[in-house]
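Example record

Each entry pairs one chain with its bound ligand, adenosine-5'-triphosphate.
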Amino acid sequence: MQLEIKNLTFAYNKKEANIVDNFNLEVKKGEVVALVGASGSGKSTVLRLTAGLEIPDSGKISIAGQTVAGDHKFRAAEKREVGMVFQDYALFPHLSVEKNIGFGIDHLSKSKRKARVKELLKLVNLEGFEKRYPHQLSGGQQQRIALARTLAPGPKLLLLDEPFSNLDAELKDKIRGELNQIIKEIGVTTILVSHDREDAEFMQAREIIMN
Ligand SMILES: Nc1ncnc2c1ncn2[C@@H]1O[C@H](COP(=O)(O)OP(=O)(O)OP(=O)(O)O)[C@@H](O)[C@H]1O
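Structure tokens for the complex follow.
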């Protein structure tokens, strides 16, 4: 299994009800899974726990066979090799596209990093955009750059939180198609959060209903 979640339980406020309560999930390598369900059902929280942005109250999370949370272990977010794209893309506004994408691969030599950035820009169909800044990009282009940045280090797991929520209907169809193609092309194991089941169908994802 690429991701294994066992009896995961978590509350933001420990005096209140659990937001995630005994949640279980197994995702195979290369699989695309969609967490769908009502607002407030804890979809984003499951992603945050998987990424290492929250500490579970109990239960266990394993990525590619290694325990990252539970059994008295906790691996920090930056050591999990998990890539997450947030709803608002969160590109660094003061950095060029090239530097945004290169952010997570600064362990590579300058020439290798440059080549990797080029490769990713090709993947997301934005060749030649290296020197642009986020404010010079459309919403859809920003989203693709955010995806390229997340994919740059070659994550074991790609987490997408409502990736289409900021896009108008027409753009949404286009982006969904492109995203689907990119994910399938590189075969990255993906968990997508959406309040819209149509997104899951479009991405040919296995649906997990949360409530
Ligand atoms: N940092 C936080 N502190 C306290 N409560 C929080 C925090 N983040 C989320 N919550 C609460 O936890 C619950 C689950 O939130 P979560 O974002 O996981 O749901 P969701 O299913 O992704 O919803 P949506 O579709 O609206 O994004 C909500 O009731 C929310 O108000």
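The longest strand covers residues 3-10.
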